[in-house]
Amino acid sequence: MSSSYERIFNLPLGPQHPALKEPVLLDLKVEGEHVVDVALDVSYNHRGMEKAAEYRTYVQDLYLIERICGICNIAHTLSFCQCVEGLHGKEIPERAKYLRVIAEELERIQSHLLWLGVAAHEIGFDTFFMYIWLDREISLDLMEEFAGNRITTSYNAIGGVKRDMTPEVANKMKKGMDKLEERVKFYKKVVLSERTVMKRTMGIGILRRDAAIQLNAVGPTLRASGVDMDARADDPYAAHSLVPFKVVTDDGCDAFSRIIVRLDETLESINMIRYCIEKLPPGPLLQRLPRRVPAGDFLTRVEAPRGELVHFLRADGSDKPYRYKVKTPTFSNLAPLREMLRSKGKYVVNVADVPVILASIDPCFSCTSRNEVVKSS
Amino acid sequence: MDPSVDSIVMEMKGIKGVIDSKVICERRAQVTVSAEAYHSVVETLQKKGFAHIAAMTCIDSGENLELLLQIGRRAIVTVKVILPAQTPSIDSVSDILPPASFHEREIHDLFGVEFRNCPDSSRLMLPEEWPKGTFPLRKSFQPETPAPLRGP
């Protein structure tokens, strides 16, 4: 790093800024072109959800929790339902477990493709972005056929799922998966051979393996640093203990690795959906549960598209939660993000790379700062 | 690889300051500790491989605040501390688990728990114009009820 600059000055990037459609303030400390430190402010998306959940019944909360994040709505409702089912001590029907996996993996496919499009847009490769988002429509159309809606599907219910998978939908799903597999393999080829992508992402946003573990990175950000941690494998839920899959990792530790990990995960998800359709057991969809939830604590982990999602429920025996806590993957990735944005020794962060680094963790700030109340009384 | 919850629960029982130690269900355990022993218990767990913070939760249970630190990768151990609601303060664990500072700042904003020796205690979650000393997730805080929606 050059030390010829006499002073370090603050460069506020945001809250409205080039990298994202969501507000976040990155208060960069720059020395010439190099970023030396950053302060994060994620407080622009207040919606008061954790407090609001305490004032609503469990059934109403299901729809509130779903709206924490539009893109990973299934991961959020899945966690919520698992908390409630866990306190009831009831298993859900086998068929519902498989259908939950299909819904979850379909969501992962559309989220990863959405992210890949955004990443292509960040590096100024807009043709790639348009292509990817066109193919993302396949997964969204399948989601609509399967769950009834593209986003905010309300698919998971307390005790099971709401819609069955008909043979016609299963057929469409299989065809859709074939098409998606072909396209994702093509995108992987493009990423591996296109110099625009490599130049803008290789060696950018480095997060070493030991730093990733120490700073508790989660999801594809962690797996791109060579750590095989995945809540689906470590702490299996739904039908994940029965559905075989590979935890995708990569040793590159940079933004390029994160692209590769997400592409490979999309391919893994496609195979998981195929397996689930093949092995879908017959049986009921829903196990009816009482409205009042027995008192107790329950913590559940789900691997959302962006990483480990933790929900915690304290029930007091009534029909409303006593306390509901959500820890989102982006919140865990804030500390690693700060590490990636600091120039250190030979590793320099240019101001122009900041949007790419920020996008590489696939941030979601509406999830992260969901839990405040807008007005004081 | 995390050690099994059974062995960790047995080991924790012998440590000074541990009030209760139990297995909740498969891959979940809970250790209740006194506020003085909190820091050293977290350090012991960290040395045994529980270095991944799943979440840090605070619960307002009336007279007390419960602080729950949920750590672990395959198995999750909850370290539970009970703090007085009037003057809640506890040692920060961010020297052992660096990312804890983000979780602590969130709880500081929303519940008013003071974390001693936290490297950064500036606001993380609440907007800058939020009144000082008002903690929105405490039970005493009542949110304004929005006016009911009216049809055209």
Description:
- The complex is a heterodimer of chains A (377) and B (152).
- The radius of gyration of chain A is 21 Å and the shape is globular.
- With 377 residues, chain A is α+β, with helices and mostly antiparallel strands.
- In chain A, the strands form 3 sheets. In chain A, strands 1-2-3 form a 3-stranded antiparallel β-sheet, with no helix packed on it.
- Chain A contains 15 helices and 8 strands.
- Chain B is an alpha/beta fold.
- Chain B has a domain at 5-91: Beta Polymerase, domain 2, CATH 3.30.460.
- Chain B contains 3 helices and 7 strands, in the order H-E-E-H-E-E-E-E-H-E.
- Chain B has helices spanning 5-13, 38-47, 100-111, and strands spanning 18-25, 28-33, 53-60, 64-71, 76-84, 89-91, 114-116.
- Chain B has a 5-stranded mixed β-sheet with strand order 1-2-5-4-3, with helices on one face. In chain B, strands 6-7 form a two-stranded parallel ribbon.
- In chain B, helix 3 (100-111) links the parallel strand 6 (89-91) and strand 7.
- Chain B is globular, with a radius of gyration of 17 Å.
- The interface between A and B is large, with 40 and 41 residues.
Q: Given the structure, what is the number of helices of chain B?
A: 3
CATH fourth-tier homologous superfamily of chain A: Cytochrome-c3 Hydrogenase, chain B
Number of domains of chain A: 1
Q: How much is the radius of gyration of chain B in Å?
A: 17 Å
| Biggest sheet features of chain B | 5 strands, mixed
Fraction of residues in β-strands of chain B: 25-35%
Strands of the widest sheet of chain A, in order across it, are 1-2-3
Largest interface, per-chain counts?
A: A-B, 40 and 41 residues
Helix content of chain B: 10-25%
Cα(first) to Cα(last) distance of chain A is 50 Å
The second-level CATH architecture of the domain at 5-91 in chain B is 2-Layer Sandwich
| CATH domain class of the domain at 5-91 in chain B | Alpha Beta
Reported by name, the CATH topology of the domain at 5-91 in chain B is Beta Polymerase, domain 2
Q: Alpha-carbon distance between the termini of chain B?
A: 60 Å
- Give the SSE string of chain B: HEEHEEEEHE
Poorly predicted residue ranges of chain B: none
